[in-house]
Amino acid sequence: MAVWDDLVGQDRVVEQLTAAARAAGAAVAAGRGAAPEPGTNASLMTHAWLFTGPPGAGQTTAARAFAAALQCTSPDLALGGTPGCGFCDGCHTVMAGSHADVKYVRTDGLSIGVGDMRALVLRASSYPTGGRWSVILVDAAHRLTEAAANALLKGVEEPSPRTVWLLCAPSVQDVLPTIRSRCRLLVLRTPAAEAVADTLVRRDGVHPETARLAALAGQGDVDRARRLAVDEQARNRRTEVLRIPLEVGDIGGCLAAAQRLVDTAKADAEALAETQDAKETDDLKAAYGAAEGSKAPRGMAGAVKELEKRQKSRATRTRRETLGVALLDLLGFYRDVLALQLGSTGALANEDQRQALNRVAAAGPPEGTLRRIEAVLACRRALDRNVDPLLAVEAMTVALRAG
């Protein structure tokens, strides 16, 4: 399977990246770097790329596939084959995350610090050890702190000839202007529900009707649609969220719905902590050679404290992401309500909730629905400003009741 097959509904992006990878191969053969020579095919390739698009469109998937295509060693390339075969050692190790010359930069916390970025810039100054390119893929580049972004700028401004930076962010506005001006921009679009459903049927063996409903509910987010199609717990959680518009008839219902939503987010974070935190702590102690009941080795206390800080940050991010998904589901619900009130005949994202949608649509005018949509958006903005989650969600549910 070619590395591009995981990109759903992004034919234009695949075409651009394939052409760039082919030009990159020609540059390696000619002894050049990523900096293009004017008037040559190498102008399709450059040293820094910025992948943007709506949630779930596949920015990281596209960047990873491009990294694999850059390292592709398929013998078919000499015969005009497409880079990114998916079977050679280069492609396989990149997709598995074990290629020595491809560095993935992720964070479980809320931000990427300057220390990590300085280390990456230093690494980027060296040539690849065995592959064709040294590739640094920064997932969630919008989480860079200001100091980290400035450190990244130095690496992008003065690239090594065989280094390629791949940055992923929700939008171009989420990246410093000085960085994005030095990157080639690729904007992924929201894939059509039909394309997502077809992917779920072919790759995951999902029943066609289940795939269709999951693709609509996913609202263009391929990963979200897959979870809804194969994970019963995810479906039940979404159903709980979509009960909220029917439960805000009085203040008691508003407060109860808000508490349940926040408790679910907290439970998700705690479940993740149970599976990851203890293992990480045990691994750290083992690395320091700490024996049960003995005195902690020198330096371990500081390392444990730093680990606990990262784990706390990860728990906070998990709670925010769970609430974010719930708010997106609510937005989709009220958009469907508005579509029904305005007489739209198009497909609804929450087709499986048609009865509830009709009930809410008949209960008030479109103006009230617009105010409810604004209330959900205001809650998202409040969470981004670190407002206490329970207070933000309670304010939202009360506003949903007022209409």
Protein model, in words:
The chain is mostly helical. The protein is 58% helix and 6% strand. The chain contains 16 helices and 5 strands. A 5-stranded parallel β-sheet has the order 2-3-4-1-5, with helices on one face. Helix 5 (146-157) links the parallel strand 3 and strand 4.
Task: Give the helices and strands, then pairings.
Elements: H1 11-29, E1 48-52, H2 59-70, H3 89-96, E2 102-105, H4 114-124, E3 134-138, H5 146-157, E4 163-168, H6 177-180, E5 184-187, H7 193-204, H8 208-218, H9 222-230, H10 232-241, H11 244-247, H12 251-288, H13 300-341, H14 354-362, H15 366-384, H16 389-402
Parallel strand pairs: 1-4, 1-5, 2-3, 3-4
How many DSSP helices?
16
How much of the sequence lies in strands comes to: 5-15%
Topology as a string of helices (H) and strands (E): HEHHEHEHEHEHHHHHHHHHH
Main beta sheet: 5 strands, parallel
Morphology: globular
Structural class: mainly alpha
Radius of gyration: 24 Å
Number of strands: 5
How far the N terminus sits from the C terminus, by CA atoms, comes to: 50 Å
Mean pLDDT: 86
Low-confidence stretches: 36-42
Strand arrangement within the widest β-sheet reads 2-3-4-1-5
Helical coverage, percent range:
55-70%
